[in-house]
Design brief:
The structure holds two protein chains of two kinds.
Chain A lengths: L1 E6 L2 E6 L4 H7 L24 E4 L6 E2 L10 E3 L3 H16 L15 H9 L24 E3 L9 H8 L6 E3 L6 E3 L16 H5 L5 E3 L1
Chain B lengths: L6 H16 L15 E6 L2 H5 L2 H14 L6 E6 L11 E4 L3 E3 L7 H11 L8 E2 L6 E2 L6 H4 L17 H6 L4 H9 L2 H11 L11 H10 L5 E7 L8 H8 L1 H15 L2 E9 L3 H16 L15 E7 L8 H8 L23 E5 H13 L1 H5 L9 E8 L5 E6 L4 H8 L9 E6 L5 E4 L9 H6 L8 E6 L4 H15 L5 H18 L5 H17 L3 H5 L2 H20 L14 H5 L6 H9 L3 H9 L5 H7 L3 H4 L12 H14 L15 E5 L3 H12 L3 E5 L8 H4 L8 H12 L4 E3 L7 H6 L4 E4 L5 E2 L12 E3 H9 L9 E5 L3 H12 L4 E5 L11 H9 L3 E3 L2 E9 L2 E15 L5 E5 L5 E4 L2 E4 L3 E2 L32 E3 L2 H4 L4 H19 L25 H4 L12 H4 L12 H8 L9
The chains are: A alpha+beta, B alpha/beta.
């Protein structure tokens, strides 16, 4: 069943119950996001970037956790939205290793893309830096894993579990949380089947080809 | 045991077990001698077990066997009783006699006397901390008497490992009633009517939650019990799990029946509660065995199964979505709601999660009815709630009270108040997600709405009581450290935002904070609250936000004054005593010098910051001693006495300290009032080279020190000697010279004026008949006596009030010939603001204190006071100071015959004959000025001391005099005023930095100070307190722990 929703003033006819973020992206409306993976059954909603306003709701909501229904009126930009997105973005940058010039994904990085589209500054340093300084895992013959760049979007964990060999998950708590193999053993010693899906989905140069 | 297949069978079983429990409910001790059966109930809760409860049980069991009494004497181990701090506890029935803190060596005595002979061992029962009276009956103890046991009604009574005991107390009757007599909707309706709200913290109506689940489509649904109790200091759920596990099973079965399509439930219990898991496992096994869980429950076709899922101990798994994901076997990370669990919960199926306590009360609601449940509680929050009362409170333990009970009642009546005479400050409610409720709101009814309105949350029921030694910034830090460590790390605001918050708080507690940091904290908090996925992140900033809301001045003290009022934030100070001293005296320094036999050096060190050491060494209320680290284990170091020792030594040996005076400056400064504030301001300004003139209206200098404090506390010779020393700096004191207008001083060429006129006007009671001869206010009375004016002191004197002036006036009256002196005070003795040592001395001298009494009328004869009519008072609600405010009891009037009445109820600055120019006055007639720079609204006019603060202490007055002097100096130099005083010591005096030896740090009673005998005091104004001898001073100074080293 189809329904009509209004995003930023334009009417769109979509399938009822479809994920709002995907609809917007499919229609060329740019909503910044990092943790979104299409068709994930339970969106992580962890990057806190994809905020939109839905008429009738008191505060902006994450679009990745909303589904379309008839008559929905959505705005993808406002002062409140911007404030929330910038807060998350600046916080993410506070513990992301920023060395773009030597970064393997320089130019392809989604953080850079979001900064560009949203007019955020990568080097603003609004919050004190907290560098994790964790050693890179270079054990795998084809790709490296640099936890210091990880934004904990969880795409790799989802993709490795659903399509790969399921060697990745989150470990530790709080600011020390990181994507890790079981007990932190080197990637080469896990059952990794080298599907390279992690490299494909990583938005921030944490998993990258050698 | 064959399965129970009908309600009748259940009731039959209930009837057959009931007699077994009869003795346990028998609270009549007179039955003891003739009883055929005795039951010893020993608590096996956490507190009692940790205190050695297992051993006590073993010893009792051994004695029962040895004496061959197994048929008569029973011992049963029950769930937590509540008074955890008094463990191990033992109840003996009949009689409901409670023994507390039972040690293995006590067991024999209890057995021989109580069990064998029926004699209560008084030594081992609870003793009221104030009356010291033994209270053997359990429910007569304040702590337990004011509670209402509904959730915990089986704790302390039944053996949680025996399903039959639960059944005997009406257990599973509700389930039987529901299955046989009620439709599922009736059950739901009853819970709705009861108004039960979730006890996990948010207070969501339970029936509504079940209703959502019921109407959610699907034929597989789950119920979950949230037993992931993890807040610091909370253990309510544990007590239910360990003490009354069947109530949870029955509650969940009732929920399953009400909702429909639920065949499986899960109890998620943290693995750190092994006994809870074991107990509930055993209960589940028994319930299955008795046909009360599983298929065909009680012979019907109703099926419900329950399994335990032990949680690995992550605090975040108490959040419902994380908990469900954890049961699914994945990492416990919350997810965004919606969808809510009632639509998509466990394994994607509709589910409802309720807290342990919520489930456990459901059976009683069904069995005893919604009305029974709603009979207690407040309008929107029905029923009772259990709390774990911990922190700085006398009775630590588990408490169950009706919702809406005032916080003060919980802290002061049930909790027994604050230990060690400390002042209550606030209570943290709701754990790391909650907030603080400060003393001003101590009357708040503890229910969901009221607590939320104050910026805290009810939470699962942790109450952490805090006293004056708790730093509020530190409290916020403590809870944020907890949430930082417990954050799952999934979403950015919580993961990275909380550490940022914490680093700002750390910045403040290390003295590097700025006022903008407070705004940063609030903004950061708002954003974290708004953008986190789950409750943990959304509520994590609450402790910071709520402490800022209620204690912003404490944050500002850390930031502006670099002071931690609780003397806790170590980075801000060398030693807590020095930090607490308003003038920042180097206490460890002069104590060390006294210890090293250098009292003259000690005197010099003191004089660098305090020009009145002999005086202060006698009358200071020594706030430093309240924060002395030794004071945490025994009496604090006698800092004041040691100061007096050093100062008196210097006097006796003709050692004087005259500071170096800087180059003379052109500007002249006028000081109005030669009290401690004026004198110390003059001293500091004179050292800076300014020419200072003090104008004093009275014929003597010293202010209240001269005309308020009696001779026996402060000999005038001592005071005058110190004032003479001050005058040596070239300060002129013009006695008998009142100033009428501050502006004339400027006209006379003074460039700055300090108004330190003190608070010399006594307040009147304002009761009928007080305008007769023989009625004085204490200030006037003491002033006249001190100035040597004749006052006819009556034979029977009444003094009204509880402060130091009241005590002074009473003790002076006694010395001036009164035969009887009565102090009439409207609150309790413990509430009297006077120094405890002064009150005790007055009592020693024979002064009678009438507490909870207030005068209502003065009765006169021939124009002279003849009697006062008094009224007894009863304590009502708590006031903003955290004390119960007294209310008159009608018809309690009685008269005390007196021929003199002294009113000592307060005092204020007397500004009637002083024109203040642009300076404004405020509350209590005090002058208005900036709290830190002490600048008034008129340029060049500064104030301090009692004139600014209202009646305070001599040391506060001196500190403000110094503060004002620093501001005056900057003002005269044409610099901007700054809120801090830059204190530089004139000459550096070195002292030993050797830490105390083990022998010195060992416990050692405070060296007392000799006093003249009470009998000698009645007729003489001689100084009561004598000085330390050199040996005593050395001994006492050796008690210093030297917190400054290290």
């Amino acid at each position: 069943m189809n329904c009509t929703i209004i995003i930023d003033g334009s009417e769109i006819s979509v399938k009822t119950g479809i994920n709002l973020l995907w609809v917007a992206l499919d229609h060329g409306i740019d909503i910044p996001n990092l943790c979104n993976v299409k068709d994930i059954p339970r969106p992580a909603a962890s990057c806190r970037l994809c905020y939109v306003e839905i008429k009738g709701r008191p505060e902006p909501v994450t679009s990745c956790t909303e589904t379309a229904h008839d008559g929905m009126v959505i705005a993808t930009d406002s002062v409140a939205i911007k404030r929330l997105r910038k807060f998350s973005f600046d916080l993410l940058l506070s513990h992301h290793q920023v060395n773009c010039s030597v970064c393997p994904v320089n130019g392809k990085c989604e953080l850079q893309r979001i900064a560009h589209s949203q007019h955020f500054k990568i080097l603003e340093r609004r919050f004190n830096r907290m560098d994790p300084s964790i050693e890179e895992d270079k054990s795998h013959p084809q790709f490296n894993y640099n936890p210091n760049k990880c934004v904990l979007c969880g795409r790799c964990v989802y993709i490795c579990t659903s399509k790969g060999s399921g060697v990745l998950d989150f470990a530790y708590h709080g600011i020390n949380t990181r994507v890790s193999t079981f007990a932190g053993i080197p990637l080469a010693k896990t059952g990794c089947n080298t599907c390279l899906e992690c490299v494909r989905v990583c938005p921030a140069g944490s998993f990258y080809l050698k | 045991m064959p399965k129970i297949t009908s309600l009748e069978e259940l009731l039959k079983l209930q009837k057959s077990v009931e007699p077994k429990l009869k003795v346990r409910g028998d609270t009549n001790f007179s039955h003891f001698k003739s009883t055929p059966e005795i039951c010893i109930q020993q608590c096996r809760g956490m507190g009692c077990t940790a205190a050695g409860g297992d051993r006590i049980t073993e010893l009792f069991e051994g004695l029962i066997k040895k004496k061959g009494l197994s048929t008569k004497v029973n011992i049963v181990r029950t769930g937590c009783l509540g008074p955890c701090e008094m463990g191990p506890t033992v109840i003996i029935n009949p009689g409901d006699i409670l023994y507390v803190r039972v040690k293995p060596e006590d067991v024999n005595e209890i057995f021989e006397k109580h069990i064998m002979k029926g004699e209560i061992v008084e030594r081992l029962v609870y003793h009221d901390p104030t009356t010291k009276k033994a209270i053997p009956e359990r429910l007569k103890i304040n702590f337990l008497a004011d509670q209402e046991f509904r959730i915990l009604h089986n704790n302390g009574i039944i053996d949680p490992w025996d399903i039959e005991e639960y059944i005997a107390r009406g257990g599973y009757e509700a389930l039987g009633k529901a299955l046989y007599k009620m439709k599922p909707d009736d059950v739901l309706e009853e819970v709705k009517k009861a108004g039960l709200r979730g006890r996990g913290g948010a207070g969501f109506p339970t029936a509504t939650k079940w209703g959502f689940l019921k109407s959610s489509p699907g034929d597989v649904k789950y119920l979950v019990c949230n037993g992931d109790e993890g807040d610091p200091g909370a253990y309510m759920n544990r007590a239910v799990l360990e003490g009354n596990p069947h109530s949870i099973i029955e509650g969940m079965a009732l929920g399953a029946y009400a909702v429909g399509n639920v065949k499986q439930g899960f109890a998620y219990i943290r693995a750190e509660y092994p006994l809870a898991i074991e107990t509930l496992s055993a209960a589940i096994a028994q319930a299955r065995e008795y046909g009360l869980l599983g298929k065909n429950i009680m012979g019907t076709d109703f099926e419900f199964n329950l399994d335990i899922f032990p949680g690995a101990g992550a605090f975040v798994c108490g959040e419902e979505t994380a908990l469900l994901i954890s049961i699914e076997g994945k990492r416990g990370m919350p997810r965004q709601r919606p969808p809510f669990p009632s639509n998509k919960g466990l394994f994607g199926k509709p589910s409802a999660i309720n807290n342990v306590e919520t489930w456990s009360i459901v059976p009683r609601i069904i069995r005893e009815g919604a009305e029974w449940f709603a009979r207690v509680g407040s309008e929107k929050s029905k029923g009772t709630k259990s709390f774990s009362l911990v922190g700085k409170v006398n009775n630590v333990g588990l408490v169950e009270v009706p919702l809406g009970t005032s916080l003060g009642k919980i802290v002061f009546d049930i909790g027994g108040g604050i230990p060690n005479g400390k002042r209550y400050k606030a209570t943290q409610i709701g754990g790391p997600s909650g907030g603080v409720i400060p003393i001003e709101h101590v009357n708040v009814p503890v229910d969901y709405e009221s607590v939320t309105a104050l910026g805290a949350i009810m939470g699962s029921g942790g109450l952490v009581v805090m006293d004056e030694d708790s730093c509020m910034v530190d409290v916020a830090k403590f809870f944020l450290q907890f949430t930082r460590d417990e954050s799952c790390g999934k979403c950015v605001p919580c993961r990275a935002g909380i550490p940022k918050l914490l680093s700002l708080l750390n910045k403040i507690t290390s003295g590097k904070g700025t006022l903008e940091d407070i705004d940063k904290i609030l903004e950061l908090s708002e954003m974290i609250q708004k953008s986190s996925i789950c409750g943990l992140g959304q509520t994590a900033p609450n402790p910071a936000v709520s402490t800022i809301r209620h204690f912003r001045d404490e944050y500002e003290a850390h930031i502006i004054d670099k002071k931690c009022p609780a003397a806790l934030c170590q980075a801000l100070f060398r030693a807590p005593c020095q930090h607490t001293c308003p003038v920042g005296l180097d206490v460890p320094g002069y104590v060390a010098l006294i210890k090293d036999d250098k009292p003259a050096e000690a005197y010099k060190l003191i004089m660098q910051r305090l020009p009145l050491p002999m005086t202060v060494g006698r009358v200071c209320p020594h706030p430093c001693e309240r924060k002395c680290r030794r004071g945490q284990v025994e009496d604090p170091v006698a800092i004041r006495h040691l100061k007096r020792y050093a100062a008196d030594y210097a006097w006796e040996h003709g050692i004087a300290y005259t500071p170096e005076i800087k180059a003379a400056k052109a500007e002249r400064v006028a000081i109005i009032g030669a009290g401690p504030a004026g004198l110390s301001a003059a001293w500091d300004l004179a050292i800076e080279g300014y020419k200072v003139t003090i104008f004093e209206a009275l014929p003597v200098a010293g202010g209240m020190l001269a005309v308020g404090i009696p001779e026996y506390r402060l000999p005038k010779e001592i005071l005058n000697r110190e004032i003479d020393n001050i005058k040596k700096l070239g300060i002129e004191i013009r006695l008998n010279t009142p100033v009428n207008d501050i502006n004339t001083l400027f006209k006379e060429g003074y460039k700055a004026v300090f108004v330190g006129i003190g608070a010399h006007k006594g307040d009147k009671l304002g009761i009928p008949g007080e305008d007769v001869e023989g009625v004085y206010d204490a200030i006037e009375f003491l002033r006249n006596i001190n100035l040597g004016k004749y006052i006819s002191v009556g034979k029977k004197v009444a003094v009204v009030g509880g402060g130091n002036s009241a005590i002074d006036a009473a003790r002076v009256a006694l010395r001036k010939g009164a035969e009887e002196v009565h102090i009439v005070y409207r609150r309790e003795r413990a509430d009297m603001p006077a120094e405890e040592e002064e009150i005790a001395a007055a009592e020693e001298e024979g002064i009678k204190i009438h507490v909870l009494t207030t005068p209502v009328k003065v009765i006169s004869k021939d124009g002279k006071v003849a009697a006062i009519e008094c009224q007894k008072m009863a304590l009502g609600d708590f006031d903003r100071s955290g004390r119960r405010s007294p209310k008159a009891i009608n018809g309690s009037e009685y008269t005390i015959e007196v021929d003199m009445l002294i009113e000592a109820i307060g005092q204020q600055p007397d500004t009637a004959s002083l024109r203040l120019g642009e300076v404004k006055t405020g509350k209590g007639g005090t002058l208005i000025a900036d709290k830190r720079t002490l600048a008034t609204d008129q340029k060049g006019v500064f104030t301090g001391g009692d004139a600014f603060t209202g009646p305070l202490t001599v040391i506060e007055a001196i500190a403000s005099g110094q503060r004002a002097a620093a501001s005056i100096k900057r003002f005269l130099e044409g610099k901007d005023l700054i809120p801090t005083v830059d204190r530089k010591d004139a000459e550096s005096i070195t002292y030993s930095n050797v830490p105390p030896t083990d022998a010195e740090t060992a416990e050692h009673a405070r060296v007392g100070i000799a006093e003249i005998r009470p009998a000698d005091r009645r007729t003489s104004m001689r100084e009561v307190a004598l000085n330390y001898t050199a040996r005593e001073a050395k001994e006492e100074s050796s008690r210093c722990l030297r917190c400054d080293i290290g």
